[in-house]
Amino acid sequence: PLERRGRVVERRENGMESMTLFEVVKMGKSATQSIVDDWIESYKSDRDIALLDLINFFIQCSGCKGAVSAEMFRHMQNSEIIRKMTEEFDEDSGDYPLTMAGPLWKKFKSSFCEFIGVLVRQCQYSIIYDEYMMDTVISLLTGLSDSQVRAFRHTSTLAAMKLMTALVNVALNLSINMDNTQRQYEAERNKVMAKRANDRLELLLQKRKELQENQDEIENMMNAIFKGVFVHRYRDAIAEVRAICIEEIGVWMKMYSDAFLNDSYLKYVGWTMHDKQGEVRLRCLTALQGLYYNRELNTRLELFTSRFKDRIVSMALDKEYDVAVQAIKLLTLVLHSSDEVLTAEDCESVYHLVYSAHRPVAVAAGEFLYKKLFSHRGPEEEGMPRRGRQSLNGNLIKTTVFFFLESELHEHGAYLVDSLWECAGELLKDWESMISLLLDEPMPGEEALTDHQETALIEIMLCAIRQACECHPPVGRGTGKRVLTAKEKKTQLDDRTRITEIFAVALPLLLAKYSVDAEKVTNLLQLPQFFDLEIYTTGRLEKHLESLLRQIREVVEKHTETDVLEACSMTYHALCNEEFTIFNRVDIARSQLLDELVDKFNRLLEDFLLEGEEPDEDDAYQVLSTLKRITAFHNAHDLSKWDLFTSNYKLLNTGLQNGDMPEQIVIHAMQCTHYIILWHLAKVSEGSSTKVHTLLLSMRAFCLMCQRYLTSVNTTVKEQAFTILCDALMIFSHQIVSSGREQLEALIYTPDSPLQAELLNFILDHVFIDQDDDNNSTDGQQDDEASKIEALHKRRNLLAAYCKLIIYNVVEMNTGADIFKQYMRYYNDYGDIIKETMSKTRQIDKIQCAKTLILSLQQLFNEMLSDLGCNFDRSSSSFCGIKELARRFSLTFGLDQLKTREAIAMLHKDGIEFAFKEPSPQGEGNPPLNLVFLDILSEFSSKLLRQDKKTVHLYLERFMTFQMALQREDCWLPLISYRNSLQAGGDDDTMSVISGYSSRSSSIRTKKAKPASTGKRKLTDAVWMNQEQNVQTPVMMPSPHLTSTVLRDPKKMRPDESYMGVYAMTSEQQHQQLPPQQHHHQTPMDYNRRGSGLMEDDEEPIVEDVMMSSEDRLEDLNEGMDFDTMDIDLVKYTHKDVYFLTSCAFMNITALVSLLSYFAVYCFSHPLKIAERDQS
């Protein structure tokens, strides 16, 4: 029976044959308890058979196809068995059960761990003490954990750590039983002699002795696992293995703190916090969280905290967000344990993370901030009222305002509120206390809020109201709106009702108090957007609505700031909702206000435009302020019935004729006219009776007006005209008829060539400029930086507006050449916009995009020729910059050559034609003027398919003469280099000295490589050659694949270039030439162990081999450590072949280079033989 391969006790269920222990656990259909019970019964009947089953279970769980036979089990040592299993391991795949994907294998891992735990639990009273089963298993797992095979090492480490955890649980139970027995013994012994039972004392002594023996044996087992497995594997080369060790040691310290929670074990967690893999650092933090959560353990952690506190604080800024979140949570637990551990600097490094764009990090930092600043209450605060200025929340709100101001990030109030929302939501929803702080007079001795503090409080209040009503994070923090649960929806409705009831009364009072402060008023006017307007009627709050409308009107009359006016406009828009009964009242108030504004504007404009009179500054200010108000309202309200187009157009036309119109009046007149046309278009789109022809005339007249303003002397006016023109061209492009709006086809407006040229010239003159040219600020360094950022932001918007026209085919795609050629020079400022434009244009038309890219390179080349002349140095910065730009363009085509095949081919075609377009200015026999462009074009050769390289080469030969093919001067190097790039990797690559590289991994890849598909469509020669123009050309000799050493400057040769550096080698081949030792895994952690302090007696060397193996092997199966080695495959020339090649060398350059290549490699490979035959 011992000969069977790892069979568990016969289990026949539903007629199925018996399965191995591995198969039973993998299936997961049987309870783990019953599986273990069956194994124990088998062990009791024949422990060798059962133990063989268990050994094969661990072998098979590692993914090994082999099995340990009874003969091997009897006569071979564990190391010999492991070596035998290693030889039978399947190397074709790196997968094994613990790393395989799928629900079955995910469940297997938990079943595997559960099996080990249940096995120890069921055997804890007898079998584990028989000095056979546990010794065998621990010895096997220790040996497997030292294996070079990753699957063995990973699986056995997991098994050993789970085995250790189960033994720790047994040891804990033994310790508890010993304590109970000791107490019983002491109680019995302390009895008087008459009542003392001596036989019970003897039994208790015997029991205590047995428990002590078992405890000692368990401790020996745990020491064997810890020293044999953990100490080596906690710094394994594989992150998963290291993570397993750290996770389990955290369990041991938490479960049996009396034995494990000391510096001898804590040091491993501290050292591993410096691990290079985020997964391992994460396990360290979660392990420590379990310890710091229990306040009873804090005293044992004091030394560890003092030693590794700085590292934990620094991990709050970890590059892995999950690690940073857990580090902040750990610091929060440390804060719970003692307020004195973390310094002010430590806390400040966490505080600023509440403004992080990553929400989990910000929420964790918000909880830390709340615990530090808000959770401590003194005895004097116990009797405070719940709400109001003098309440506890009032003081906490002040603290929040102070923190917000000290952080100096006043534009990120929404981020602060969102960070504190989960832990301080009740505080942020105490709007009564906030209103009290703003409206009520301070008590005697109380310090009132300053103007900045009131502004910050209003902003925080607005952000809290928005968060309560919208129930999603602010923009930039979160993936979008999520579906709310029923409970969240109810909370949202309750909050909105409460907000309306409170602020319907308080908002008019707040507006009245702060009506002259633009920033405060702008924020306060946004509150009605979140109101439940029905409450104005149901709550009988109409008088407060009237008060609100009066305050809004006063704000409109007092302010001319665009932000304030637009906030008023949006408030009217929110209140003018036809679904509610308050609509008529609000509509009347709005109409009265707009009537007055329009009448005033027309009256002022008539006086302002009177001929022969010079308008004074007061008249201009009145016109501008009224126009600002009308423009702000026209953004959200339809003012078509007032017919403002005529007056605005007249104003703009007068400005063009006279040239002295104030720029702000022109800018707002343009914006207002733009709104007029958009509202007109909205009516036409909805099927209104408005005439399309009227809209067409208005739109074209306005676009022509904006085009004329592009030549204005005022930059701000030109920018406004450009922006509006781009928007109008987008809106009235061919896409206006999409979605079934064919009736708008007459409105399509396509820009003519002069307009396209003016738009492009504007971009070139106002966007692609240096920072200093566009900076006029002299108010100090900080203001200077702020103005630079603002100017850059404005230029980015202008460029984005124009690029949209390219993407949507509003302007010709080839106009993008002037944009694309700026990619490298202005990469930091506009690189993302230009790259996205290239990507979108390629999606629209690959070929036209490629032609645009090559056109941009040609333009740069021509500019360089005009600046440097035709005899420029190819090492000049200008030429190298163009070549680098070509390389960047090449990278944008991606790795799929089939998708970009035609585009790349057309790019080469245009490049070749450009290179031979202009003859040499020195006369016949000299290279064409643009021949050097082929050097730039060669950057795209790697994107050609092999068969397309031949086609491109044939097309190149159409432009070459026989004499060109024979030229080898420096001036012809671009042609030679380009031809070489087209012939590299060809089918007849007979010139290559290095024919291949062999290694185990490369041979496996070769076997699995699919043959090239013969069904792929070929690039027809029609793309390249017109059959009617197919003139007879001389027979061209193939250019050599190897670059002659004569053509290279020895001084420019890199130090690492040997004789083989002369030959053209791919980057992959160069990588394969690296010596194997450069690929070795390095220690994955940096244990900062210098200096005196924690646990130095048990320290290991800082630099150590991560594979703590007894065998000094360099290969690690299935671990990516099989290195490619280079084999020089010599061409087998005989003496006759050499003689033949020598004879042909003077007639054929191919034969000559082949001969030289053979001799070079032969000399390199057989130096001794060459020395012996030196005379001959």
Automatic annotation (TrEMBL):
<feature type="transmembrane region" description="Helical">
    <location>
        <begin position="1138"/>
        <end position="1164"/>
    </location>
</feature>
<protein>
    <recommendedName>
        <fullName>Cohesin subunit SA</fullName>
    </recommendedName>
</protein>
<comment type="similarity">
    <text>Belongs to the SCC3 family.</text>
</comment>
<keyword id="KW-0175">Coiled coil</keyword>
<dbReference type="GO" id="GO:0051301">
    <property type="term" value="P:cell division"/>
</dbReference>
<keyword id="KW-0132">Cell division</keyword>
<dbReference type="GO" id="GO:0007062">
    <property type="term" value="P:sister chromatid cohesion"/>
</dbReference>
<dbReference type="InterPro" id="IPR039662">
    <property type="entry name" value="Cohesin_Scc3/SA"/>
</dbReference>
<dbReference type="GO" id="GO:0000785">
    <property type="term" value="C:chromatin"/>
</dbReference>
<dbReference type="GO" id="GO:0005634">
    <property type="term" value="C:nucleus"/>
</dbReference>
<comment type="subunit">
    <text>Part of the cohesin complex which is composed of a heterodimer between a SMC1 protein (SMC1A or SMC1B) and SMC3, which are attached via their hinge domain, and RAD21 which link them at their heads, and one STAG protein.</text>
</comment>
<keyword id="KW-0131">Cell cycle</keyword>
<keyword id="KW-0812">Transmembrane</keyword>
<dbReference type="Pfam" id="PF24571">
    <property type="entry name" value="HEAT_SCC3-SA"/>
</dbReference>
<dbReference type="GO" id="GO:0000775">
    <property type="term" value="C:chromosome, centromeric region"/>
</dbReference>
<keyword id="KW-1133">Transmembrane helix</keyword>
<feature type="domain" description="SCD">
    <location>
        <begin position="230"/>
        <end position="315"/>
    </location>
</feature>
<dbReference type="InterPro" id="IPR016024">
    <property type="entry name" value="ARM-type_fold"/>
</dbReference>
<dbReference type="Pfam" id="PF21581">
    <property type="entry name" value="SCD"/>
</dbReference>
<comment type="function">
    <text>Component of cohesin complex, a complex required for the cohesion of sister chromatids after DNA replication. The cohesin complex apparently forms a large proteinaceous ring within which sister chromatids can be trapped. At anaphase, the complex is cleaved and dissociates from chromatin, allowing sister chromatids to segregate.</text>
</comment>
<keyword id="KW-0158">Chromosome</keyword>
<keyword id="KW-0472">Membrane</keyword>
<dbReference type="InterPro" id="IPR013721">
    <property type="entry name" value="STAG"/>
</dbReference>
<dbReference type="InterPro" id="IPR020839">
    <property type="entry name" value="SCD"/>
</dbReference>
<dbReference type="GO" id="GO:0007059">
    <property type="term" value="P:chromosome segregation"/>
</dbReference>
<feature type="coiled-coil region">
    <location>
        <begin position="171"/>
        <end position="224"/>
    </location>
</feature>
<dbReference type="InterPro" id="IPR056396">
    <property type="entry name" value="HEAT_SCC3-SA"/>
</dbReference>
<keyword id="KW-0159">Chromosome partition</keyword>
<keyword id="KW-0539">Nucleus</keyword>
<dbReference type="Pfam" id="PF08514">
    <property type="entry name" value="STAG"/>
</dbReference>
<dbReference type="GO" id="GO:0008278">
    <property type="term" value="C:cohesin complex"/>
</dbReference>
<dbReference type="GO" id="GO:0003682">
    <property type="term" value="F:chromatin binding"/>
</dbReference>
